[in-house]
Amino acid sequence: MQIEPELVASLPALDYGVSGTVMHRSCAIVGNSGTLLGGKQGEEIDRHDAVLRINYAPVKGWEVDVGSKTTYDFSNRENARRILKTNVKMRDSTLLFFEVGSPTNRKQMFVPLVKKFPDRKIHFLHPGFVVRGLDLWFDLKSEVEARRHTKYHDKPMSGLFAVLFMTQVCTSVDLYGFEAYTKKRANSPYHYFDKVQGVTSVHSFDLAIDVFRLLNDAFPITIK
């Protein structure tokens, strides 16, 4: 695969976790679930050495529940487009994107992003890492389906790749705001920061939780 020069120039000097070294001891990944509201876990989240947030979720006004520290912002292509096309207030974090295998994504979103923010750290997961992550997802999905005698949607959440990335660079990973969403859960909104209606026809949230629990057999992952 031929990568555009602009993206090659944005590569870090060394790969993350090079030579098996761990970059961070304790890490938190903060999801966007409305169940975070009222939990008052902000201080606990901020005590981690590194904090990753998903899809550039806002924190101002919700610091008590979700914290304020952000080391990494992990985003899918839809939110990459939002960052590119709108005046999103940027924070001091490393931007991470994973859907770089598509030439269209690279040319229409990621190259323009690198040009728009030349002074920002914008990094990309290797396509091979993403493919292996997908293989792992489908293997674990089959295991869960066999155990529960049911079928789930195929598409993994962005959070899967965020979790896999952090397991490579952290000694331990705590997950916040990853509760399985169902439309019957009327007491909590879909996101903690807006009133958007939740969708369950694309992702299988309960499957994702089971997958993260299975990953805990190999990695120190805790669902808070």
From TrEMBL:
Keyword annotations from UniProtKB, A to Z: Glycoprotein, Glycosyltransferase, Golgi apparatus, Membrane, Signal-anchor, Transferase, Transmembrane, Transmembrane helix
Molecular function as annotated in GO: sialyltransferase activity
Superkingdom of the source species: Eukaryota
Family affiliation: Belongs to the glycosyltransferase 29 family.
Transmembrane spans: none
GO cellular component, one term: Golgi membrane
Record's bilayer topology term: Single-pass type II membrane protein
Location in the cell: Golgi apparatus membrane
Protein name: Uncharacterized protein
A Pfam short name: Glyco_transf_29
Organism: Cymbomonas tetramitiformis
InterPro entries associated with the record: Glyco_trans_29 (IPR001675), Glycosyltr_29_Sialyltrsf (IPR050943), GT29-like_sf (IPR038578)
